[in-house]
Amino acid sequence: MTFLPDGAEVRTAGGPSAAATVLDLADRSDTPLKTVCGGVGNCTSCRVRVVSGDWPAGRIDHARLGPLVNQGWRLACQFVPRGPLTVERPAVMDAL
User: Would 93 be classed as within a structural domain?
Assistant: First the structure.
C-alpha cells in the first residue's frame, strides 16, 4: 500500500504495478502529480516531500534538488516504493 499526496491512497498488487514509481501511482489516483519532462527527472515538477517511510535520496534527487534533499524532498518519477510511504506535494507547485 502506498499513500500519496492529499490523502489519496493507491493499492498495488503484484505484477507490473509492483514496479511503478510514485509518479505512476499518483497518476492512477485522484491526485496526479504535475510533470513537465514526462518523468525522466529533468524538470523537478513532480517533487514531493517524504513525510514517512523509507525513501533514500538518489543521485538525480541530489543533482536536481540540491539542498532540498536534506529537507526530505524527492522526485516522484525516480523511486519505486517497496513499502508504506507518505508524501506531500508543495503547497504551491511553483514555489520551490
Answer: no
Backbone phi, psi, residue 35, to 5°: -145, 135
The total number of structural domains in the chain stands at 1
Contacts of 6 (CB under 8 A, 6+ apart): 31, 88, 89
Q: What is the pTM of this model?
A: 0.78
- Asked if residue 77 belongs to a domain, the reply is yes
**With contact defined as beta carbons under 8 Å apart, do 2 and 12 qualify?**
yes
pLDDT tens readout for residues 8-65: 555 544 444 567 899 998 888 777 888 899 889 999 999 999 988 889 999 999 999 9
Three-class SS state of 47: strand
Tell me if 37 is assigned to some domain.
yes
